[in-house]
Amino acid sequence: MAQQPAPPTLPVPDEVGRLYDRYTDLGSATLGENLHFGYWDSPDSPVPLDEATDRLTDLMADRLHLGTGSRVLDLGCGTGRPALRIAGRTGADVTGISISHKQVERATALAADHGLTDRVRFERADAMNLPFADGSFDAVIALESIIHMPDRAQVLRQVARVLRPGGRLVLTDFFERAPIPDSGRPAVERYLREFMMTMVQAEDYPPLLRQAGLWFEELTDISEPTLRRTFIELSARISGSARQLAADYGGELVEQFNPGDMTDVREFGHLLVVAVRPGL
């Protein structure tokens, strides 16, 4: 892969799990039950953050071509709201995995609250070594989760293995749209370090997918409708009660990183990737 501004060491799955064990309550107070970015049609859209995060889930799920009974793997399920939304909108059966014990517990409770435990289930698992048989799923979705995984190539090989022939993958990732200037590099490196993430170059994906046995279908820069507005909204939310919750559950994260620091780093990008496992 091309050189990138990244932490000095790659993310370690168990450490990422512990981070999100601690971050689950704080994240729910800021992003809500969706622990991913929002999607807005225009910079001045009145759509609130909670609805915008659902819109990104829908944008991705629509590319999976799901129907009643489709088997979906949510790779890095967070606290479960995307999986529940996908099941409710499409009739699919969804299995969500997370490396965080607390996220799996929260997601399982949420599925019970919605009466969907017959079609939506969650378990702790590592995407680097998926505990599922070959061809188990019709589709895989990964909402900003591959950013935490130390080897994207290994994850994509695992995804290709558990997808049936003709199955689809949709994911989002962080990438470097252009060389990050010195003025923005401290904020980007701090963001990656504090949340145990790495980023890629957009041109890395076609060969990564090809080597995993997947066919590249779409590569779209969704930075403009997602990143800046989400960072603004998060910066505003990390105040008052949210800041108190941060002090209780992960105050050092807020002290070291403010989402507002990323607002004008336009070179930091958000990438939508769609791929298919070849076959009938």
From TrEMBL:
Residues 43-277 form the Polyketide synthase-like methyltransferase domain. InterPro entries: Erg6_SMT_methyltransf, MeTfrase_dom, Methyltransf_11, SAM-dependent_MTases_sf. It comes from the Bacteria. GO terms for biological process: methylation. This is Methyltransferase type 11. Transmembrane segments: none annotated. Signal peptide: none annotated. One of its GO terms (molecular function) is S-adenosylmethionine-dependent methyltransferase activity. Keywords: Methyltransferase, S-adenosyl-L-methionine, Transferase. It holds the Pfam family Methyltransf_11.
